[in-house]
Amino acid sequence: MNLPRSSYYYQTKTQEKTPEDLALESRIEEITEEFPKYGYRKVTRQLHRDGNPVNHKKVHRIMREKGLLVKKTRRFVKTTDSNHPYPVYPNLLKDLKVTNINQVWVADITYVRIVSAFVYLAVILDRYSRKAIGYAISRHIDTALSLEALWMAVQNRNPPPGVIHHSDQGVQYAAHDYIDELRNNKFQISMSRRGNPYDNAFAESFMKTIKTEEVYLWEYRTLDDVLRRLPYFIESVYNQKRLHASLGYRPPSEYEAMLKTQNQENPCLITLT
């Protein structure tokens, strides 16, 4: 074939990975195993928090080569039943600038599939810090479920008068028992417009997170499985570890602790409750 002997015997030189590169790959795999829906930006930020100032392009390359980049997942089903006789309330969040914790709480409900049925999760978040401050799990999607989450949030936060409680127009939030509890705790009541999920986007985003980063990754078989896993994910993973780009790549609990420290150092700022 008229090829030079050197071309026939040529072998591509492969650069051996350094111990630092191997350690980096191992750490990236650990992060994506704990947080399967982390994209390369959040993985990079976590590495920076670990003290490794790696470039995001390198992280992206490693994740691509190892098949660790996030893949799209299925959509989830809405659980809102707004066909009821109870009064609904206007959306108080339109054009509102949220500047501190305990200013706006957002509430929502989703379902979790088990082998023989569904169970339901109600959650209340502080919109400013994204922290889950109340939640409840039940076989029944009713007002008792939403009330249990509200009671937990009130006990955890002892909210000042005037906090805006925002939800959809579902019967679980519009029923007299729930509205009475909100009024007893001096909440301002706010509801999304019918058929407009963007009005409660922060709660919807949390539900998407918990579905894609926890529920879809575990084969829940019984209610006990859900009762064991979901509280752990909410309290120990989401609140304590999961980074949020909107919080400067900090987890919610750390972000609230930072706000509290800043307010103690500068009394002119709004006092946190």
Describe this structure in words.
With 273 residues, the chain is an alpha/beta fold. It has helices spanning 5-8, 19-34, 40-49, 56-65, 143-157, 171-174, 176-184, 201-213, 223-238, 252-265, and strands at residues 104-113, 118-126, 132-138, 164-167, 188-191. It has a five-stranded mixed β-sheet with strand order 3-2-1-4-5, sandwiched between helices. Strand 1 and strand 2 form a beta hairpin. The longest helix is centred in the N-terminal third of the chain and has 16 residues, at 19-34. It is elongated. The mean pLDDT is 85.
The helix tally amounts to 10
What structural category do the secondary elements indicate? alpha/beta
Biggest sheet, in brief? 5 strands, mixed
Proportion of helical residues: 40-55%
CA gyration radius, whole angstroms: 23 Å
Low-confidence stretches: none
Could you report the average pLDDT, rounded to the nearest whole number? 85
Strand order of the largest sheet: 3-2-1-4-5
Into which percentage range does the β-strand content fall?
5-15%
Spell out the helices and strands N to C: HHHHEEEHEHHEHHH
Number of strands: 5
Morphology: elongated
Distance between the termini: 82 Å
